[in-house]
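call fold(seq) -> tokens
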Amino acid sequence: MTERRAIIIDTDPGQDDALAILLALASPEFDVLGITAVAGNVPLPLTQTNVRKVCELAGRTDVRVFAGASRPLVRDLVTAEYVHGKTGLDGPELSEPVMELQAQHGVDFIVETVRERASGEVTLCTLGPLTNIALALNRAPDIAPKIREIVMMGGGFFEGGNTTPAAEFNIYVDPHAAAALFHSGVPIVMIPLDCTHKALTTRARIDAMRAKGTKVTDAAAALIDFFERFDEDKYGTDGGPLHDPCVIAWLLRPDLFSGRDCNVEIEIGSELTMGMTVVDWWGVTDRPKNAHVIRDIDSDGFFALLTDRIARL
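ret:
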């Protein structure tokens, strides 16, 4: 087997975050160095609790979990209980976690870990607002050239936004953090709504997950059942988009995805378009390309991978 890829997952669970974490923990290709929680879908006390709930569901109490930023860099926190429920993980009954939260702050953990590791060794997988990453880069600019890449779920271009007409939730919550990231020089893979809106949790796909018959697949199916109802009503589709697991799936199977290198700028000046990801897909400016932007996904292959891996836990 090839050497395992060292990753840090930065997340704000969220049902789709939970499935992304499960996919990572079920995949021997990864060495999960730690998971950092950020305020986003729900406030930080809930997101850090939810990370530990998911680790315990996966039987992975060995994974270190850290609490990071409790609010965005500049703006007030916006949350999404209307999508994820009051706990952020509404759906299955998940018991309160027993495993401890690490005492170290998540941002300090990111800085220390990237500094300690060889250059180009650590990949950051971001599933929520980018506050922790921006704080780490601001505090320790020396880590930027050492990060292998940042694979992030966030943004939208042809698809527009899902929180405002212009902005996707993760970017909208902390647009200043996103702007810092895209100007950091760190290689970025951006997985926007244009990709994730093609990864729909259809009834057949949820049934295939449930048919595996394990405790974890039952919980995963229950998470999806709760999560998708909002997007089904909103978009009129069979199933809702499963955003965050695309980050982990891209690392496992990049052949399931396609995109191109683009310039991406983040709007932080206008309230009307605050948090918009301005993607120069057609190369109409001479701004330097700073992200590999994913637009398409083999959704059948993606769900087969997700289901097969989670069934192993």
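The chain has a mean pLDDT of 96.
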